Amino acid sequence: MKPLLSLLLAAWFLAIPGIAPADAQSLDDRFDEANGSYHRGEWAQAIEQYAVIREQFGTHTAALSYNLGTAHARAGQSGKAILEFERARLLDPPDALSMDIQANLATVRSSLAEEHRRSSGEELYSFGNAQPVWARFFQSMPASTLRWSFAGALALLILLWMGYRTTRSTGRALGVLLTFTVGLTLISGTMTLGNHWTAEQVTVGIIVGARAQIREGLHDQAESQIVPEGLSVRILEGSMQRDHLRVQLTNGREGWMAVEDIEEI
Where are the alpha helices (H) located in 92-225, listed in sequence order? Predict the structure, then answer.
């Protein structure tokens, strides 16, 4: 696991009107310092420096989340490593980076599963994605790709329909192409709406607390059980006090967990 040198980010800032060169240079320097800390094995310092870049410069990129994920993994903070790798995965990384993210995510999850299996003597939890199957289907493609696909299909449909109505000879080929485009528009439109709806309605988080507990209820006598760090959970609702969240684990179990033990992807 090695961090990416994010020089392209600095170039991007330079290209934006209204951002002073000093700010861009400062961003470049921040990345150099953070990457230097990483290479020296100063994981805590690297994590802090990468976090400052995100907070002060509003930088939310796959490369930065990947860097944070690798630093957390090296520091032994597996839950936060998974959180950052999942965030990086959702930020439309290029193919090469996407492969590294998936590989590192699988490595950390596999290591956690093996560690939990050794300590408990059995496999009680799945460290996979807590999204329902239907939500994963609609989220299988980036939102931007779906939007452009729908816009292109709709534009083509309008052009073909205009041609179909104005030409004297409809022609079998034009009719078949029009029918195909109607289907393509319906599919891409459904995927686009499904992607948007699931992004709004299905909230997934990662357990980052080392001794997190899931409780059957919020009353004092409610039964509780420690759950391992790094689990993906579906967030169902919050309590009225907003200090607990109702969640669903990948094995279907539901319960309440402290807000500080979960971070939303």
Answer: 95-120, 133-138, 143-166, 172-201
pLDDT in tens, 120-155: 665 667 777 777 788 878 887 878 889 999 999 999
Q: Which of 105, 36, 43 is nearest to 75 (CA)?
A: 43
Name the β-bridge partners of 245.
Answer: 238, 257
What is the C-alpha end-to-end distance of the chain, expressed in Å?
Answer: 21
Tell me the pTM: 0.70
Query: With contact defined as beta carbons under 8 Å apart, do 13 and 23 qualify?
Result: yes
Long-range contacts formed by 189-195: CB under 8 A, 24+ apart: 189/150, 189/153, 189/154, 191/138, 191/141, 191/146, 191/149, 191/150, 192/143, 192/146, 192/147, 192/149, 192/150, 194/137, 194/138, 195/138, 195/139, 195/141, 195/143, 195/146
Distances (CA, A) of 60 to 8, 18, 101, 181: 13, 19, 16, 36
- Going from the N-terminus, what domains does the chain have, and what CATH number goes with each? 7-120 (1.25.40.10), 137-201 (no CATH), 203-264 (2.30.30.40)
